[in-house]
Amino acid sequence: MSEQDLLEYLDGEMTDPVRIAEVEAWIRKSKENREMAENMYYVLHSAKSLHVLEHTDTRKAFERFQKEVGRKRTKTFFMKIVRTFEKTAAVLILPVCIALGYLFFSGDDYGNQTIQISSKSGMVTKVELPDGTLAWLNSSSTLKYPIKFEGKQRKVELSGQAYFDVAKDKKRPFVVDTKYHYSVTALGTEFDLFASENDECIETTLVEGLVCIDFNDSKRKFSQIIHPDERLRFNARTGEMVVDQVNADNKTAWRKNRFVFRETPIEEVLMELERFYNVEFCIADEDIREVSITGTFENEQLYQILDYICMAGDMQYQLSKTEGNDCSGHRNVIVIK
After folding, report:
1. Which of 117, 119, 275, 337 has the smallest CB count inside 10 Å?
2. Rounded distance, CA 305 to CA 314, Å?
3. Angle between helical axes of 3-10 and 31-54 (0-180°, round to 10)
4. CA distance between the termini of the chain
5. What is the CA angle 198-203-208, rounded to 5?
6. Quick one: which H or E segment has residue 92?
């Protein structure tokens, strides 16, 4: 994989579906490849955060970062990335720190500015927000937040899936807004929220503390508190709401690049794989919906997981077609039969 191809992909400049598929396949090929890509992605987002404040060019900021860490160019681009990140990992997983540092020393008022972080397909992006809250973005997810939280609430906007470890602040609730007039409010807690622009079903899973979920549109309105190891599933089209008991640690293992299934219905298994690997599954045989899966997968490629699932459930899978419906311009459809 060339330096130019990877930079174009991570910076959102690549538009050719074939080249995009090649880069994503390379990222998923090994744990080392994914870590290299994630490290590069953090640097680019750090530069983008700074760009919001001083209107610098992302690539020039990236080059400036390389010079400042004082590392000489090695034989390969990727070896340099690995060595650089060994000494600067704490900064790179917190891209907003650059922007906040600039704000502190400049004394300028950027309270109305926002930062947008987007996680690429098959990658998990970690970011620290201005109040100290940690957020992990699942594959193909986007988070918007202000450079500085002001007012009585700490409000962010999510499209996709994210895990939040919320910094405690009893005077200012932390609010996550999503599409469909659905929001989650917390003071200091840990929870997982899935709310995709392309999916009418929304899920909130609580790990620790309490959260209040609010929905309010022209037809329906409700408020619901959930407790640890509870999941609220809401269909924005039908208004159906279900609260059930789950193992929250297993449901949120994706942020550590793990999937843990314990007698999990096949539809839920495929749904989690869809979110992480940015694919779509089609179940061709209705009897398959009765299958449950048990297994733990860590840093596995999608086809390896599918091989196990199909062997366990006496099924087969087949790549069907490609359709354009996301920012990458394509989405693979896999038929389970």
Report:
1. 337
2. 14
3. 60
4. 34
5. 145
6. helix 77-92
What distance in Å separates the CA atoms of residue 45 and residue 61, rounded to the nearest whole number? Answer: 10
Q: Are 188 and 210 spatial neighbours (Cβ–Cβ below 8 Å)?
A: no
Q: What are phi and psi of 273, to 5 degrees?
A: -70, -35
Distance CA 186, CA 167 (A): 10
- What DSSP line would sit under 99-160, residue for residue? HHHHHHHH----TT-EEEEEPPTT--EEEE-TTS-EEEEPTT-EEEEESS--SS-EEEEEEE
Are 113 and 79 a contacting pair, CB within 8 Å? Answer: no
Residues 161-185 pLDDT 10s: 999 999 999 889 999 999 888 999 9
pTM, full prediction: 0.69
CA 235 vs. chain centroid, Å, equals 21
* CB neighbour class for 154 (10 Å; exposed up to 12, middle 13-18, buried from 19): buried
3-class SS of residue 295:
strand
Question: Are the CB atoms for 275 and 161 separated by under 8 Å?
Answer: yes
DSSP class per residue in 172-217: S-EEEE-GGGEEEEESS-EEEEEE-TT-SEEEEEEEES-EEEEEE-
In the prediction, which pLDDT does 279 show? 86
Compute mean pLDDT per 10 residues along the chain, 337 residues long, and list them.
72 73 77 71 53 46 52 45 41 43 45 81 88 93 92 94 94 91 92 90 94 86 92 90 94 92 93 88 90 91 90 87 45 84
Residues near 230 by Cβ (< 8 Å), separated by ≥ 6? 205, 206, 243, 244, 245, 246
